[in-house]
């Protein structure tokens, strides 16, 4: 059982997401009228922090945002959801990264264009160790890699759990992995020389990651750890929108992993609970509707 309120530090990307629900992806020179739109803070680390906070945790996001009006709006959106934003680009007047997302109504599949974290190179703040020490778990999305490695190194030295969201292989990932306790990667995460989930799990184990898993949309999550391996089924839902589902998975997993020493049973149970939350997020359009009042109770473990 959990005691107290879990605290999480989320290190990585924050964007302004403009999400449009369309009948089909437009062709060259085609204009479409969207059925619906959502404008909200986004990015893997930011969405994970929101999910962690919604489940009952206290979330801090370490990222780059700036003082451009769009960045101020992004920060306000996160603050309204209870996420504390620590902005390492607070003096920047440049706009934040904007993710343009088209969601096809009939399938829930999405197409995304974004500059991601290319506009900023973040150096670790002087109080990084204090930020890490104040949390139970640190989650990384692989963006702002220099900052991520420094925070992960600090977490390892201070005995805090670390969780890696492997959406895709990025330069510098090999420097981060030795400080990661748990890695949950998408099927698109392909380390050098790998082609299957089994290859990826083996690669992560050889780099010192004790607990690892590979997700594949609606397919079972494949996992492996020091004392076991297995699969976790993903609940079947009518998919409306897959935007941010992996981010929600990681935010929920961070919440469920906070307490105690990991065993195979604990890891599989946490993955299963996180998969329930992520599946629920896929059943509605946008990245926020799943958190509205009136939705069935979320897993408690």
Automatic annotation (TrEMBL):
<dbReference type="InterPro" id="IPR002173">
    <property type="entry name" value="Carboh/pur_kinase_PfkB_CS"/>
</dbReference>
<dbReference type="InterPro" id="IPR052562">
    <property type="entry name" value="Ketohexokinase-related"/>
</dbReference>
<dbReference type="InterPro" id="IPR011611">
    <property type="entry name" value="PfkB_dom"/>
</dbReference>
<keyword id="KW-0418">Kinase</keyword>
<keyword id="KW-0808">Transferase</keyword>
<feature type="domain" description="Carbohydrate kinase PfkB">
    <location>
        <begin position="10"/>
        <end position="289"/>
    </location>
</feature>
<dbReference type="InterPro" id="IPR029056">
    <property type="entry name" value="Ribokinase-like"/>
</dbReference>
<protein>
    <submittedName>
        <fullName>PfkB family carbohydrate kinase</fullName>
    </submittedName>
</protein>
<dbReference type="Pfam" id="PF00294">
    <property type="entry name" value="PfkB"/>
</dbReference>
<dbReference type="GO" id="GO:0016301">
    <property type="term" value="F:kinase activity"/>
</dbReference>
